[in-house]
Amino acid sequence: MSTPQGARARARIEVTAAIKEAARRQLAEEGAAKLSLRAVARELGMVSSALYRYFPSRDELLTALIIDAYDSLGEAAEKARDAVSGAAPVDRWTAVCEAARGWALAHPHEYALIYGSPVPGYSAPETTIRAAARVGLVLIGIVRDAHEGPGLAELPLPAALRPEGEHMVAAFAPELRPEAAVALVAAWAQLFGLVGFELFGQFNNVVEDRETFFRHAVTRLAHSVGLR
To answer: Where does the record locate the signal sequence feature (predicted)?
Structure first.
C-alpha cells in the first residue's frame, strides 16, 4: 500500500514532467527567449503561484530543459557507441556523430536551446556542465581507446598552441597528447557546426545528399584527430 508521502512524490514527478512538456511546446512555438512561466501555467490550468513551487523562476525551468536536452543527446551518443563497441575506431566515431545528427533532426527545438543563440538574460549555471560534456566524453573515449590500442596518427601542432594543448590535456584528456586534445576540440566544434548548418538552413540550395555529405565530413574529422 502506497504511503501519502510516496503518492505526493509521484504526483510531484508527474506535474514536473507536465510542466516541462508544456515548456517544450512553448519553445517550439515561441522560442526560448519568450518562455513564460505564466503561459505554461495557463496551458496546464494552474495558477502561477502553484507552478512556482516547482520552478521558482524562468531560469530554473530553462536550466532543467537544458539539462534534459543535453542528457537526451548524450544518451543517444552513448547508445550508438555501445552498439558498435567492437568496430574500428573510425566507425565508432562516425556512429556517434551520426547519432548526434539524428537526435538533432528529431529534436530541433531542443537542439536550438542548447546550441542555438543564447537566451537573453540567461546564464547557464555549472549544474549544466556534466550533461553538456557527455558527447564530448564519448568522443574523447574513442580517441583514448585508439591511443591505447592501435595508436593514433601523428598530428601537427604549432608551437604557439602547445600551451593551450597542455591545458586541455590537464583539464579533460590526461591520457592524450596535446596534439590530440587540440584536434578533438576542433573536431567537436566542427561536428556541431555541421549539424547546426543543416538544422538551421545554411545548407539549403548547397548540399542535397546531406546524409552522405555528413558521413564524409565526420569521417574526415575522425582522421583529423588521429584515428587510423
So the answer is: none
